[in-house]
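Record type: monomer structure entry
Structure origin: computed from sequence
Chain ID: A
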Amino acid sequence: MGRRSALQQEVVAALIDSKAVDFEAVGGILGKFGSRIASEGDDFYVVVHWRLIDACIPPDPFGVLRVSDLAGQVRIQEAGQLER
């Protein structure tokens, strides 16, 4: 892990202490909606990294490109190239 400056560390601590970044609230939202998101196939991302905190609900068509979708696109492209 890289090093933060003293100022950066102070800002991070202030964000967490003030609940500007409320990890309990994020966890509560995931707990409430997570099983529905997973079972219905919707996309919702929460990334917590030492450099980044990101919560994203991507609009269609920006959802996850699934491996099966990608494989189908490759087969279609290959078939198109064979027909030429």
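Annotation 1: The first helix runs from residue 6 to 17.
Annotation 2: The first strand starts at residue 45 and ends at 48.
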